[in-house]
Write a structure and sequence with these properties.
single chain, alpha+beta, 4-stranded antiparallel sheet
């Protein structure tokens, strides 16, 4: 990875002292900055290798594409202090973020680093299902049991992973955040929940709730813990802080999480999942079509990540997601098809090569940022083709009740996500993919676009 690019990125965001934290998702470097005014937007967008800049949810996001993990690793290798607790440093006064931006930033920033793990474990569980269906493994074999344990770990202990990640976002001890999550899935607690006998904590009744595979309870608990930690740090003498601080944080935070915050978070999670299914049940295919038509623009500004927790909760609580992953499939394939239409129609050799390669990336892996920022959004009109094709495909998907059974980015290489233990929707997913592709391709060709002239230097 080019060291010059890393220096340019750090310089564009205002230097290392202006970075509270940095994480990455499938295609973006996501910075939380102390003072966004110190960042130079024009300089960030002009860096070779940066496809676009998105400022949303309190994050300063640089769209890199498929090599974002390499860029992140090079960034951390050159500036290892960015991996440490930067958020603990005092921040310079800056314009306060709106409550919506702050909430979205906290949610997406906490979940984004964990998504690849969840996707990998989800695909692993589907692989096991395929092996059983093909007769290569039986559910009673020790090999199946061990493999199932491995892939189930990502979901069962999700509160611990989210807690660790959330603590970084909230500027507190990441290991204490992970500790909170682990306490919520401790064997003793899960045993009490399984028995169902009433319990109390010093006379206060405790609601027995299952927290494995949940998001919101641990997010809220770590957020509260961040304030508890700050208060304890102010009063604990330096000579005993090495053991007294974590003890007091655990003593206060864990009971709060189990007695108050966790049950509230569980109710909120259930309400969101039930609300999503109610809207889906009431409006069905129409709701999917509207959301699918808008989804390309949500992706362009980074708001689609705010829908990820809903998808994860639906899969965890119901075993399937008939909404968010379905819409993502329609949108991803429409982005791929629009880029393919541009590649077919353009006379610009450079654009043709970029459009074709980014189209294949979107089709195979569901990674649409190169197609969107490198081609469709730049030319503008292909985005309307995406809206049309995505909406039409979603109407069909809603009609056939398409369901995703794991949380992963939809693409050809992840078609196994549409297979469940009792249901198989691969055929419906493939038809949806074809509809999105054909409708978008035709719409993009009809709508057209302003074909950029070939750069003379590139022709030479």
């Amino acid at each position: 990875m080019d060291a010059k690019m890393i220096d340019q990125i750090v310089d564009a965001v205002g230097g290392t002292d202006n970075i509270c934290s940095v994480v990455h998702c499938a295609t973006r470097l996501r910075f939380s900055l102390r003072d966004e005014k110190k960042a130079d937007d024009a300089k960030a967008q002009s860096i070779p290798g940066v496809l676009s800049l998105v400022k949303k949810g309190g994050q300063y996001q640089l769209v890199i594409g498929n090599d974002v993990d390499l860029v992140y690793d090079a960034l951390i290798q050159k500036y290892p202090q960015l991996q440490k607790d930067q958020a603990a440093k005092p921040a310079t006064p800056a314009k306060k973020k709106g409550i919506v931006n702050a909430v979205l930033g906290a949610i997406t920033g906490s979940i984004a680093p964990v998504v690849p793990l969840l996707a990998g474990c989800g695909m692993g569980k589907v692989l096991l299902l395929v092996l059983v269906m093909s007769g290569l493994l039986t559910k009673t074999s020790s090999s199946y049991i061990l493999l199932n344990m491995i892939f189930d770990t990502g979901f069962y202990f999700m509160p611990a992973f989210i807690g660790f990640s959330a603590a970084k976002m909230f500027g507190c001890n990441a290991f204490m955040g992970g500790f909170i999550g682990l306490a919520m899935v401790h064997p003793t607690w899960t045993g009490l929940v399984a028995k169902g006998n009433p319990i109390d904590f010093f006379g206060v009744p405790v609601l027995l709730a299952k927290y494995s595979s949940t998001l919101i309870p641990v997010l809220l608990s770590v957020w509260i813990m961040s304030y508890i930690e700050k208060g304890i740090k102010k009063i604990v003498p330096g000579m005993v802080k090495v053991f007294l601080e974590p003890m007091l944080i655990a003593l206060i935070s864990v009971p709060l999480a189990l007695v108050c915050i966790g049950p509230l978070g569980n109710l909120l999670s259930q309400a969101i999942a039930d609300g999503s299914m109610f809207i889906y049940g009431a409006l069905g295919a129409v709701a999917l079509a509207i959301l699918a038509a808008l989804y390309p623009w949500l992706v362009s500004v980074g708001l689609h990540k705010a829908l990820s927790p809903i998808s994860i909760m639906l899969v965890a609580q119901q075993g399937f997601d008939p909404v968010i992953r379905v819409v993502a499939l329609c949108s991803n394939m429409s982005q791929a098809a629009a880029a393919l239409a541009v590649a077919w129609k353009t006379k610009n050799k450079t654009l043709k090569s970029l459009a074709f390669s980014s189209s294949m990336t979107a089709y195979l892996g569901g990674i649409t940022e190169p197609a969107m920022y490198g081609v469709n959004l730049k030319l503008k009109r292909p985005m309307y083709g995406c809206m049309i094709g995505s909406g039409i495909a979603a109407l069909f998907a809603g009609f056939v009740k398409l369901k995703a059974f794991i949380y992963v980015t939809p693409g050809l290489l992840s078609m196994a996500m549409w297979i469940g233990e009792d249901e198989n929707f691969i055929l419906q997913a493939l038809i949806t993919l074809v509809i999105a592709s054909v409708a978008t391709f035709i719409a993009t060709i009809i709508i057209g676009f302003e074909d950029p002239e070939e750069n003379k230097e590139e022709q030479a």
